[in-house]
């Protein structure tokens, strides 16, 4: 019985398992193609694991997914991501697009498994350079700017690339690292821009700066017959730069009077006037040449020395002589002052004195000079006025005296030094600026002197008046025969104590109390008396009681 139950349990379980399998088969058959079986991904591999892609390029990554048995899994569900989409992006199909130079990590994952591909984005190589301008010209010592652009194979502009510059002939043109070309000498040179093995060229022609102006020296000259003079000419560019090595042509408008060589050497032939001209590249300058039978040897100026008061004038006389001392008339003369602020001179030789000082008047004729030394002195002081001419001061007070100097015409003269003196320094003093200070009662005469001219002012000094008298002690109480010393103090305005003043004493009743001239009070008999001290009409009193 026990064995029968065991057999029945065994086969019952078997039958139930078979039935379950059969039911599953039927269910799968009913579902047909609409049901998929999900298989777990055990490993995931991306290829290539490392790749270099040029900027702008693309790359499709491959992925192999396997199950636990190592069998490939077809069409697994994949998720893609990038560590830096500014460097490289990835599509849902695993297509990498290179954006900018750098390194990005591309991750792919499926069912908890993942793989990483390292993508290095390399800069696009330079395929060509574009240099502008392709040809240009520049003057010697001037500069011009060239620019170069780097392009890829598609003609797209590439930025941030290093460009080096060079010149085929640095004796003609130099170029710096910024493409600035400097003209060195006339000629032609090729400027080359190079980047990553690619290059472009610009043809540069260097020429000399044109002559803009020409100056000739001297601009005017005088020669005797058979005499000679070397003239010079300087040519300059528009900026004023001196240009060397230029051809200069010389000519004379009157070859009968003077001729000029190819180097500017002039020879005087006969008396007259000729214009000497220097020409270079269409620019010219001229000088006037006067040829005389005899030349000036000396210029005599009269007077040779003179002293003028400022504001006055003096006409100079001139005389031109030759080697033999003969006077030459009609010769041109020029006048100039070495110190025009001191004295000026007109074209006619009239000197005007302006400010004190010394100058020389230079007189020139035909290369010879003479001189007249002019000393300009100030306009002399004719009168001196003091204001005020009288003043009354109290001791300690100060009054300023003003001094006015005038010329003979009455014009006020400034800048003169005044000397001040006091006739009674114990009464009043005077400073160098004319400030008078009262010292003691009396009268002082203040004397001002300038350039020998004097003026005076009378200063009277008196003591400050007494405005009050103070007696101490303010009261008195004495016995018959007793003495009491009283003191009277005169005071001025503001209570200032005044010294050396006369004080008189008096008693209203000398039968009761007597007071001496020094303020000593004496009791005579019992009673009351008023004692008074007076100074300059101002009094004070106290009451004395005698017991």
TrEMBL record:
Keywords recorded for this protein, A-Z: Signal
Top-level taxon of origin: Bacteria
Record Gene3D superfamilies: 2.60.40.1080
Signal sequence annotation: 1-31
BIG2 domain mapped to chain residues: 40-120, 125-205, 210-290, 295-375, 380-460, 465-545
Keyword Signal on entry: yes
SUPFAM superfamilies the record matches: Invasin/intimin cell-adhesion fragments
Name the UniProt record assigns to this protein: BIG2 domain-containing protein
The species this protein was found in: Gemmatimonas phototrophica
Higher taxonomy: Bacteria, Pseudomonadati, Gemmatimonadota, Gemmatimonadia, Gemmatimonadales
């Amino acid at each position: 019985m026990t064995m029968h139950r065991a057999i029945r349990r065994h086969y019952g379980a078997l039958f139930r398992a078979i039935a379950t399998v059969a039911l599953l088969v039927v269910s799968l058959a009913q579902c047909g193609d609409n049901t998929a079986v999900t298989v777990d991904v055990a490993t995931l591999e991306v290829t290539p694991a490392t790749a270099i892609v040029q900027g702008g390029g693309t790359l499709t990554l491959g992925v192999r997914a396997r199950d636990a048995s190592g069998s490939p899994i077809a069409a697994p569900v994949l998720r893609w991501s990038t560590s830096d989409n500014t460097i490289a992006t990835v599509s849902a199909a695993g297509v990498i697009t290179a954006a900018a130079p750098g390194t990005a990590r591309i991750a792919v994952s499926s069912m908890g498994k993942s793989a990483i591909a390292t993508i290095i984005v390399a800069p696009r190589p330079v395929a060509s350079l574009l240099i502008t301008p392709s040809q240009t010209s520049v003057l010697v010592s001037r500069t011009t700017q060239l620019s170069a652009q780097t392009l890829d194979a598609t003609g797209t502009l590439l930025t941030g690339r290093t460009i080096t510059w060079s010149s085929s002939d640095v004796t003609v043109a130099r170029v710096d690292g910024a493409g600035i070309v400097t003209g060195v000498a006339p000629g032609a040179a090729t400027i080359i821009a190079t980047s990553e093995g690619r290059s472009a060229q610009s043809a540069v022609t260097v020429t000399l700066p044109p002559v803009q102006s020409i100056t000739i020296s001297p601009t005017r000259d005088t020669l005797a017959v058979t005499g000679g003079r070397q003239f010079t000419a300087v040519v300059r560019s528009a900026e004023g730069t001196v240009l060397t090595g230029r051809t200069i042509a010389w000519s004379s408008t009157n070859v009968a009077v003077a001729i000029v060589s190819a180097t500017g050497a002039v020879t005087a032939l006969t008396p007259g006037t000729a214009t000497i001209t220097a020409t270079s590249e269409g620019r010219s300058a001229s000088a006037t040449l006067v040829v005389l039978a005899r030349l000036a040897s000396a210029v005599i100026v009269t007077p040779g020395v003179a002293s003028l008061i400022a504001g006055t004038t003096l006409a100079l006389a001139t005389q031109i002589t030759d080697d033999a001392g003969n006077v030459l008339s009609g010769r041109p003369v020029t006048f100039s002052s070495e110190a025009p602020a001191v004295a000026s001179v007109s074209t006619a030789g009239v000197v005007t004195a302006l400010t004190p000082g010394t100058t020389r008047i230079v007189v020139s004729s035909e290369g010879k000079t003479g001189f007249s030394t002019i000393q300009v002195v100030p306009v002399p002081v004719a009168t001196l006025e003091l204001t005020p001419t009288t003043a009354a001061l109290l001791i300690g007070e100060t009054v300023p005296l003003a001094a006015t100097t005038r010329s003979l015409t009455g014009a006020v003269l400034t800048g003169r030094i005044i000397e001040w003196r006091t006739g009674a320094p114990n009464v009043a003093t005077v400073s160098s600026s004319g400030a008078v200070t009262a010292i003691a009662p009396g009268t002082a005469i203040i004397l001002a002197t300038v350039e020998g001219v004097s003026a005076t002012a009378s200063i009277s000094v008196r003591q400050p008046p007494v405005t009050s008298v103070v007696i101490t002690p303010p009261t008195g109480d004495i016995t018959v025969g007793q003495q009491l010393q009283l003191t009277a103090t005169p005071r001025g305005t503001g209570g200032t104590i005044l010294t050396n003043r006369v004080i008189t004493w008096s008693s209203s009743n000398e039968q009761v109390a007597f007071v001496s001239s020094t303020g000593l009070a004496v009791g005579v008999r019992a009673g009351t008396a008023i004692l008074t001290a007076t100074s300059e009409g101002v009094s004070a009193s106290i009451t004395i009681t005698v017991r």
